[in-house]
Amino acid sequence: DLVNPTFDVEGLAADPFNNKVYGIGDGNNLVVYDVAGNAWSTVGNTGRNWDSAGLDYDPIDRVLYAVSPIQGNTLYRINPVTAAVTTVGPTGISGMGGGLAYVQTPLTYVSVTWSDNKIHLLDRNLIDLGGFVEGSGNPNGIATDGRVIYTGHFSPQLVIAHDYTVFNTKGEIV
To answer: How do the pLDDT tens digits run along the chain, 174 residues long?
Structure first.
């Protein structure tokens, strides 16, 4: 059985190379779950509050990326070894938080926003390429394997799958 953390974890991101799952939450700490050891531990203090955070792992650069409505409309890079945070830049999307996913295509990021119930497609430079209305209220989490976009929702509590392959590099449905 997966051991439960003794702290709130809202953003999760998997490092498939090291069998670790990283998380950030209401507090300032970056935490890590060691799959083999079935244990949670604290990497370090990020110096920021990550309430309602979205977190993902970039397998190419082996760093974490995070967004949170508490931190404004900004994308941050987090070092998974030291918990050091650097600003990447503004996303241009208001209400961004609760989910972030890295994709190894020209559409580098996908994100969800509560304010308009929309999935946004962003390129590596954080340019919003458009997107589509989710269709269900309050999306709060997102993940993708490059073929399917999965979104999680508070109300109603459900997960929806979207065919990612129907989008072109401009974020338009084809």
So the answer is: 677 777 777 778 888 788 888 888 657 999 998 888 989 899 999 999 887 788 888 888 899 998 887 777 788 999 999 999 999 988 877 766 667 776 666 556 777 777 777 788 777 777 777 777 776 666 777 777 666 777 776 666 666 777 766 655 554 555
Segment holding 77, helix H or strand E = strand 74-78
Residue 130 Rama label (left phi>0; alpha psi -120 to 50; beta): left
- CA 75 – CA 1 distance, rounded (Å): 33
Amino acid making up residue 67: V
Instruction: Name the 3-class secondary structure at 69.
Output: helix
Which residue type sits at 142?
I
Q: Which residue has the tokens 């295509």?
A: 105
Q: Which has the closest alpha carbon to 119: 127, 23, 129? A: 129
Q: Which residue has the tokens 């109300």?
A: 155
CA end-to-end span of the chain, whole Å? 42
